[in-house]
Amino acid sequence: MVESIPLETATELIDAAEDRAEEIDNPMVITVANSEGNLIAQHRMDGAWLASVNISRNKAYTAAALETSTHELAEASEPGNSLYGLQTTDEGRIVIFGGGYPLERDGEIVGTIGVSGGAVSQDRDVAEAGVDRWQELSE
Amino acid sequence: MVESIPLETATELIDAAEDRAEEIDNPMVITVANSEGNLIAQHRMDGAWLASVNISRNKAYTAAALETSTHELAEASEPGNSLYGLQTTDEGRIVIFGGGYPLERDGEIVGTIGVSGGAVSQDRDVAEAGVDRWQELSE
Amino acid sequence: MVESIPLETATELIDAAEDRAEEIDNPMVITVANSEGNLIAQHRMDGAWLASVNISRNKAYTAAALETSTHELAEASEPGNSLYGLQTTDEGRIVIFGGGYPLERDGEIVGTIGVSGGAVSQDRDVAEAGVDRWQELSE
Amino acid sequence: MVESIPLETATELIDAAEDRAEEIDNPMVITVANSEGNLIAQHRMDGAWLASVNISRNKAYTAAALETSTHELAEASEPGNSLYGLQTTDEGRIVIFGGGYPLERDGEIVGTIGVSGGAVSQDRDVAEAGVDRWQELSE
User: Fold this and answer.
1) What is the DSSP letter of B16?
2) pLDDT tens profile C4-52
3) Which domains, and CATH codes, for chain A?
4) Which one of C3, C36, C108 has the shortest CB-CB distance to A38?
5) Please, do chains B and C touch (3+ CB pairs < 8 Å)?
6) Which Pfam families match (chains A, B, C, D) (predicted)?
């Protein structure tokens, strides 16, 4: 059994992220996945980039598969650093820039959110709106 | 030109399909895609099979890529018939059993819906609830 | 968090399956996976077929992804039947012949076992030795 | 001729690596492969990252496929150096950071070990425990 996030909660997180994406006027693709990185729900906002369909899904996958926020992976993966080459491992699913975040309950990762569609700072901003909503719901 | 369906409409179709899935007590994965077969929205209902994540997405893809309902492909793909072997073409994305349907406007395919999670008859039943909702919205 | 099977238990199941494989004098590849079909442990017995590395892994994946024993999928997937074409969906990971089994606890699938290396009847025999061991450990 | 390592030896190397992983309190995925890079045995320790399943397997593959320790590949693969781009060749299986090692007998590579799950320095530390065990067994 996978302890996961109910679909209803997943779509609430996506709604919160979509609201933020509308505020900053940048359509995004938003994915919520379970703790094994498999999809629970994914929405592509009208006008969001096609590439973001895979990128948001893979950000959610990466946050589960390496149990980290994806922006934490960038520096170590640069040429000359210890994980240089990380982004081409694991069948091309590892994303090493920001926008993927774990969702935790009692210190355990029970799901993840991945957002793609704008500058990385915008992706992170929108994903964090989903993470914030998760924390409100968890209180 | 790629015709598409707004995300808001896509989630309405998914809601209608989910309602039907609950009525028949069979959790499903439901995907709505655009006329190029690319994802607009996908929901995995709580308890739906993992394999259905890919299969529902690929049913939606197939309905767009071959401009047909997927159950129309089964017979022609059988040994001895004209399209025998179809299901292994196109990078493994072609699904030849039921549950994928085009969504039309004025005789043009503008999107598709794909459902997976039960017996094929159930997948079709649930997908058709989404198609019915599309037709209501189009009137 | 994935409620899964500890590695120690997984290797006990593999040991039981290996014992049976030795009894019938047929080297096998044996995989134990978690409830999302991801690997916990895999052993290739000396002399087992190379193809069985992927096949045993995919039998374990299939048992998780469709929540079934893989031999249950054969009939429905034959030409003319409802799931004809199933075996080429889901990125080629679906195996529709015997040797993959769910491992249950309190009615929930918490893992799977997949065996490949001989005739299907032998694969099933060896996998069932692993399932039997699971049931003994669960008592 | 494909040289290989008996399954029994492979699991001994994995045991030695697991012992070291427990000492440094970092769960790892450990793979032993034959001289063609194909799996003999793989264990995912409880709590090890999902991504490490593929990465450890591919470190073992790379050590066989290029007949080298994977950490030897990093520098040459950096921009401006002779093998820049190496990591995206060979269907995404090449890993260019540390944790994959050849296992030699009489100067011939007869197998490999790949470890993933922590910082690269930890992966190497744990993999080297497996290599050390190999050398003890070979004496």
Assistant:
1) H
2) 899 999 999 999 999 999 999 999 999 999 999 999 999 999 999 999 9
3) 7-138 (3.30.450.150)
4) C36
5) yes
6) HbpS-like
